[in-house]
Amino acid sequence: MTASSTSTPPAAGGAPTRSKRRIVWRWRVVDIVVAAVLGVAIGFVFLAWNVGYTVPKTVIEPLLPGLQGLLNGPWLLAGVIGGLVIRKPGAAIFTEVVAAVVSALVGNQWGGLPTIEAGLVQGLGAEIVLLVFLYSGRLPVAILAGAGAGVAGAINDLAFYYAGSGAPFSITYVVSSIVSGAVLAGLLGWIITRALAATGVLNRFAAGRELRAEV
């Protein structure tokens, strides 16, 4: 069962154009498996960054309160990559939450449920942007998806970890999180997706077909 933005099918042998792109709602088994694998793999990136971010934080935080939002990008990566690869509703949320669950199960300084809740919110931020652009795999959409995850994650952090912060801190934190999300999740996520597609492992997905069509 599919729902489409237009009744015109994609052009044979190539990726659909924006005017012909359709949203496919039904997940295949391979979609679930690949999204789960991506989430688990990026979850280990989360684990590494849970520890590694503390060093640059001690340098950045004193420069300007709120600037530590520049370090949030790596925690937004799973949703963007999941959305770019699977390109079906729920992909960004699913992949980001799986990565957050890995981080929560192994253990971190924020606790299990808060970590999973943050993953859900961050994934939703990316998901909304991808949905608006009909799950396009273009670079500008990836960057906007990363920025969307950055906005959602920053608002969540301000509500639960920086409650009562003044306007200067909040504005700086949101803006820096958006920049970090756009670059470290959006741009980097797009590059990683393209690199995976180049290996042939995404041949069953639009990301792989699009890359082959460009060659």
UniProtKB/TrEMBL annotation:
Record carries keyword NAD: no
Keyword terms of this UniProt record: Membrane, Transmembrane, Transmembrane helix
Top-level division of the source organism's lineage: Bacteria
Source organism of the structure: Schumannella soli
rRNA-binding recorded as keyword: no
Residue spans crossing the bilayer: 29-49, 69-86, 93-110, 116-135, 142-164, 170-192
Descriptive protein name: Uncharacterized protein
